Amino acid sequence: MENLFGESLDHESTATGLFADVIIPVPIPKLFTYKIPKNLKDDIGIGYRIIVQFGQKKILTGIIAKVHQKPPAAYEAKPILDVLDHHATVNPLQIRFWSWMAEYYCCNIGEVMNAALPSGLKLSSESKIQINPTFDSDTSTYPLDEREELILQALANKGEMTFEDCQVVLGIKSVHGILKSMVVKEAILVFEQVKEKYNPKVESRVRLTKRYAEDKNALEGVFQELSSKPKQEEVLLKYLQEVPVYKKPELNTKGLEKSVFSEANLSASSLKTLIKNGILEEYKIIISRFEEEEPEDVEIQLSEPQYQALKSIKEQLKEKNTLLLHGITGSGKTEIYITLIQEAIAGGSQVLLLLPEIALTTHIVGRLRKVFGSSMGVFHSKYSDNERVEVWNGVLSGKITFVVGARSSIFLPFDCLGLVIVDEEHESSFKQYDPAPRFQARDSAIMLAWLHQAKTVLGSATPSFESFFNARTGKYGYVGLTQRYGEAQLPEFQLADVLIDKKKNLLKLDFSRLLRESIQEALSKQEQVLIFQNRRGYAPYISCEDCGWIPECEHCDVSLTYHQFSEEMRCHYCGFKEKVPSSCPACGSSKLSAVGLGTERIEESISLLFPEARVARMDLDTTRSKYGYQRLLEDFGSGNVDILVGTQMITKGLDFDKVTVVGVMDADRILFFPDFRAGERAFQQITQVAGRAGRRDKKGKVIIQTRKPEQQIFNQIFQGDFKNFYLQEMADRQRFFYPPFVKIIKVSTRHKDYKTAEKASNSLHNLMGDIQVKKILLGPEKGLIGKIKNQYIFESIIKLDKGGNAQAQFKMELQHLLTELLAQKEFRSVRFIVDVDPY
Ligand SMILES: Nc1ncnc2c1ncn2[C@@H]1O[C@H](COP(=O)(O)OP(=O)(O)OP(=O)(O)O)[C@@H](O)[C@H]1O
Ligand SMILES: [Zn+2]
Questions:
Q1: Do residues 723 and 781 share a domain?
Q2: 332 lines ligand 1 (CB under 6 A)
Q3: What's the domain range around 397?
Q4: Non-local CB neighbours of 445 within 8 Å, separated by 6+ positions
Q5: Run of H or E including 688
Q6: CA of 572 to the centre of ligand 2 (A)
Q7: Is residue 736 part of a domain?
Q8: pLDDT for res 413
Q9: Domain annotation covers residue 6
Q10: 249 found inside a domain
Q11: Were 399 and a residue from 394, 625, 760, 805 both cysteine, which residue would form a disulfide, CB within 3.0 to 4.6 Å?
């Protein structure tokens, strides 16, 4: 074994008799044990980031989970190569949380670590490096040594380099020590290969040089000298006016943006001279997205119903750990959260507010920022890795006491959470489907809160059945809020029977007469319209009118979605794309037509029906860029758009004054989705999107297009009768053994060879049948989609008794079975994917 500089280490002299069990970010079921060498003995503790060698080649960042004196029986432990920080990055509660997650969701703790740590904290042989744009080797307090200079020069040529590149440049194997040092000296930045290169925002600033900042007399001397140079004097005065260093010396460290001088029309050359003469100094910083912001003094005036709700929440949380806040759309749940958060922070606790990903770019974050300033961190998957590291370190250092974040924010290094809030708790996007850990962030957050002895508040206008069930059985507290804030009323609902309209020739480009007239009316009053269709693209598919041929993905068992804008057919599962053929490849007919409705097609139809209206579309395709979603919302909010067409993205948390009409294009598509939750989801989606209408003084109107207007669910949605809807659906769920009456685990078996996939899934299925717990075993069946990305898929569904330890027992035995199967030669390349609570 070599040390950091490629020199060989003498084993005996490094032995301490101490070992560390290390979590490494790879999918292996166990912790690995490494030797703690003498030179690192005093710098190591639980939760520290360390560098280890894994396998022949890989260098990885690991986290120490345990220190002990027992050498591993099965292998010779390798030494830990280096320690990355002088403090723990991960705390013991987090390690417990990770272990719980690995166990509950049947995955490896390394996979949890991988999801939990931003890649900027996972220096590995897969990382890449780039020059830190703020680094200036002439003025750096920590000069680089010879090897570091070499790396810097090479980087200046190449732009970015991998670990291996560095090995070649230096001609030694272990380079991480050098790179670590360069990171500490702020000479380089590390990023993950899979992500795009980090483009930090750099700002030029100036400040007083140390000499004058610390010595008032010296500065007065300068002013005397400058008395004959008024332009320079002016610049210096401006600086002192903006940065009163003698009142608050610490202000000087933050300096002043250089642009302030040019904006005040002060002489650029005088500024230059002051810098040249060593009175001011110029420096560059990477500016954070999270600019310093002082909270504004916002007084929150709760309405009477809000105040009563708050009181009841606090009362019930004395007894219960978790509470459901069931407040209709527009009732002002956010204001209640704010009060709860303020009180928790004042009591010295940390707070986490989980939001669905997309809601994080809306006004709610701005609203919270006003109240909490920069003690609030925002954690979002569209942020770059470095930005995420910033939030991570902010929580670690205590600078950030309150985090608003998407599902992965549950992994931040909290050590004293007092309150966790999950807003829109019914949202399916809290579930991570791929890759492992396949966790439900709401459920995990409740566990996290429990580990911290903290309270959890779940908020929704349309609670998930699980949470409502738990509230009704008394496991959770429950508070209802049944009035909209202020003057706002709930919208009025109307059904549009598209079959009748079709017969009477009133259906135009899929729009019923009622919907068309309502839109027209809104437009004439300068009001806004939302049109909801949960299907992106132009049309679900293209079909030949003569022979019925439908184009399918070459790699997946699904039809291709037609995207008119790009004249392409795309697979929404693997991204495969193909040009639209000019004639049917099966029969040669040229009558190929688009079938069904996607957002693109609706957008086009609207432009034809309402040529004067300004239309925009919001779906995955129009919001891929980092600020795409935000930009669209700003356009809509500022009134530059009259009609917004969108997928479920438009159902969440939008709060605009002028929306008076909401159209649901095809309710049947939501209702008849083949899933036990279809009804629940339809109730939620329609209620939520309807809730965007009439949120101020104007009453809103919701038009729902359907072929089956007689369905009872419509009445229940219109009357907000969640409870009766729930009771009916629950009777079915109980009868047919669905959650929340049972626990569901789905195991899918994937392989590129059909026969192998089938055989492996059968073997697994039979073995699972032998596990002695109360259960129902279904399958194995070809997956709902039988092939994705050239992998054939078979699925077994296990329904487990909720009582006793059936779940724990089953999961444990399942792990053993999978290990056994994977050890068999013929199944070695099979992938078994376990998904606990797969919905
Ligand atoms: N106490 C209050 N003082 C001032 N404004 C309030 C108050 N309560 C609510 N509002 C305003 O009423 C509107 C609706 O509130 P909010 O967005 O919090 O509702 P919500 O319950 O989260 O609704 P949804 O579930 O539809 O997102 C917002 O514009 C909010 O600023
Ligand atoms: Zn595909």
A1: no
A2: yes
A3: 304-481
A4: 352, 354, 410, 420, 422, 456
A5: helix 678-690
A6: 7
A7: no
A8: 97
A9: no
A10: yes
A11: 394
